[in-house]
Design brief:
Helix content is 8%, strand content 53%. By secondary structure, it is mainly β. A hairpin with a 3-residue loop joins strand 2 and strand 3. The longest helix is centred in the last third of the chain and has 8 residues. The protein is elongated and about 60 Å long. The two termini are 18 Å apart.
Length: 240
Amino acid sequence: RIFEPDMPRFRTVLGLAAEVQPVYDGARASRVQGGPVINIHYRDIAFVTTGEGIGYNVLRGDHYQVGVGMTYDFGREMKDDYSNLRGMGDIGAAPVAKMFASWVLSKKFPLILRVDARQFMGGAQGAVGDAGVYLPLPGSSKTFVMFAGPSITLATHHYLQTLYGVTPQQALASGHPVYEERHTGTSAAGVGFSATKFLTSHWLLNLDTAISQVRGSASRSPLIERRTQRVLALSVDYQW
């Protein structure tokens, strides 16, 4: 509310997006996929979005929001990268519960800190946490807005073992050496950039890109083909 004190009752953005990203964290192969953009916010109280799932801001003020939500993870299938995942088995899709918080330093210096923690309810199991900061870049205006900032990801050993570990049975089936994740710790670090061009008062074009690197013990897994990962997403949206 620090930027928009008289917030409308509903804010809705609908559109179409295309994205290029690795087939899984650490993969060399990438895939292109498309789909709808749905962002519906009820004041600063609740939201339904394709990116963040369903959420409710339990605490909210001019400078901060703290909330809970539910999203979904699509898992990982061997066919995504059969040459490297053969014999590893599939990781099932699963709902994911999360808590999140964001805080703005000030209106004059709008540095935004965002943290979240996600618990997988099946599939990859375990928990993951992210922390990041971002702020508007020089050159931004009312019709062209740019943000950028770094982020870091932490994960429990259970999650890391599911994604990057290789059990003796999987080693026999896949040919990868046995690898066991024993520690909770950093799994990735990177930087992101977002740009939005308001073509009219309703139509907008949005670009998101990020580069990250698999870090910590996960980077030593035999499943990691490429430590540096890149994501690019482009969408055309209509807001009212």
